[in-house]
Amino acid sequence: MQMSYLRLVEVSKTYHADGRAVEALVGVSLEVRQGEFVALVGPSGCGKTTLLHLVAGLEAPSCGQILLAGEPIRGCGRERTLVFQEPTLFPWLTAVDNVAFGLRTAGVPLQERRARALALLESLGLDGFASSYPHQLSGGMRQRVAIARALAVCPQVLLLDEPFASVDALTREALQEELVRIWQARRPTILFVTHSREEALALADRVIVLSPRPGRVRAELALPMARPRSPVELAPWLERLRDLLAQP
Ligand SMILES: Nc1ncnc2c1ncn2[C@@H]1O[C@H](COP(=O)(O)OP(=O)(O)OP(=O)(O)O)[C@@H](O)[C@H]1O
Ligand SMILES: [Mg+2]
What is the average per-residue pLDDT within 181-194? Predict the structure, then answer.
């Protein structure tokens, strides 16, 4: 078995706000291999976003440790990119400049930045909107620009927080296929949060099921099947996942 690349060791997170302590995660241990595609599912408020923010380095765990390639995570890093649950674009930049932004700080020359950004926008079905500003785009389109921006820098770890929640079913399927294609080509390690059981089972190598808040790892489903996966072959897995999520 390949050594784990990302390790969460007994990670807990308690927020303190308005004189109140809120336990978001308790004793979460997780091992992720390099290039693995892991989905995280669990009820609203169980700490999924918190877990991604911890791995991104935006927050620090209250207890426990997070290691990437054997090194403790301290703050944000270029090798990790997060697509937020609420898409966050720079309102003063056009779609293509939003996507190219990370490449500028990485020192990629202008021509190449634009070419790469345009190719990504096209692959996400946004050709024709490269020069639009965020306020001229729909919510789902903004989310796609945010995904393109994350992909542009070819991160080693891609953290996606319900990235396809605000698009219609057809677009969602197209985006899922595109994500799998990009993942197969570049093999980033992916942590993918979703509310859709079907989406988790269709995409991931492994689905981690979290309990209601405070989130703990309740179960893991390892899916050996090649993609694309048919609804028929996923049916028994879907039933298991339903049962796991229905437990109080
Ligand atoms: N910055 C914060 N300050 C205080 N409490 C917070 C903060 N962020 C999250 N929480 C609390 O931590 C818990 C977990 O929140 P989190 O956003 O991680 O859940 P989630 O699983 O992503 O939910 P959803 O599926 O609705 O997005 C919630 O009870 C939330 O109120
Ligand atoms: Mg969330």
Answer: 95
pTM of the model: 0.94
- Tell which residue, 87, 102, 174, has the closest CA to residue 134: 87
Taking CA atoms only, the protein residue closest to ligand 1 atom 4 is 15
What pLDDT does 2 receive? 58
Q: pLDDT, tens digit, for every residue of 143-158?
A: 999 999 998 888 999 9
Distant-in-sequence, close-in-space partners of 16: CB < 8 Å, separation ≥ 6 = 22
177 domain residue, yes or no: no
Residue 246 lies in a domain: no
* Count of domains forming the chain: 1
| 133 domain-assigned | yes
Instruction: Supply the range of the domain harboring residue 100.
Output: 89-154
> 87 phi and psi, to 5 degrees?
-60, 135
Contacts of residues 104-111 at CB distance under 8 Å and 24 or more positions apart, as own/partner, are 106/78, 106/153
Mean pLDDT of 53-78: 96
- The answer to whether position 69 is within a domain reads no
Q: What number does the ligand 1 atom closest to the CA of 51 have?
A: 18
* Residues with CB in 5 Å of ion ligand 2: 49, 85
Ligand 2 centroid to Cα of residue 49, in Å, is: 4
